């Protein structure tokens, strides 16, 4: 077996999976520009790879942005602010009825009156999504980015009206600096919207994961429409801090279907913190290197994700940037304008099939998560 692939022998269900929250999709449907993103069948690539169905969830345009991150960021912001501002009780029923029934206008007026500022650390898409939510609410946002982040990503965040602060460190260090800045904001008016949990009781990071449920609700409907049944044999997801992968495992383990779905994760070789952790049998931080998959250049997993990923991921693949670059071009021929993080799923699937690492064939129905649209990048030797 290639050293770039880890096959998990635990093969056990994850424990303590939350129930599906029916309020999440209703909330997203209330946001401007909501519509389900496409699930695109790729028959030519499927035939070339020798598998039955290859279905790509195209998140290159979601709620007016070029990535899926707005699903988690919007729901987490909504939940964090309704609690902070007393629109729902911390541990009880909402004061104004169902949380998803509280209009954004009501939340915006309360957040503006309280002079709330949103904080987030990002290597691109999450920060822009938090900035968009601040824009919707008419409040300020401060987005911290690693100093190496490209100018295009910073420009897009600023274009949402947010302040961008570069931090001279890697992504993990930027996360810590952002948390400290939010906590130091005067009179407790700084609210951190983090998509990685530093502790296992981080409610906001849990809401990020929960927010991704809308994507999987759509996938279930779309798979049934395309194939005539709800069989999904394999799901391939990119990994940064692991929040999306946690949502993938959670959904596919708690959803009944004839065949259990195998979860395959893909990371850049220069930042394979999940694969490293699975090999070590414990959550392990790593030092990251350069990768064109800048949104996945993370050295530490989310603390709430590891217990679920440890037992729920079947295979972890580390891909070379050159593989991702090729996958971007292959998807372009199919009309999919994916960025590096979005194309990484195809690169990982192609690599694992080239090694015979898993049992995939004509009876396989594979769902690829394409998580971001086209973005600039620079290949390095």
UniProtKB/TrEMBL annotation:
Keywords, in A-Z order: Lyase
One of the record's GO molecular function terms: lyase activity
Domain annotation Tryptophan synthase beta chain-like PALP: ranges: 33-371
InterPro entries: TrpB-like_PALP, TrpB-like_PALP_sf
Pfam families: PALP
Source superkingdom: Eukaryota
Annotated protein name in UniProt: Related to diaminopropionate ammonia-lyase
Native source organism of the sequence: Phialocephala subalpina
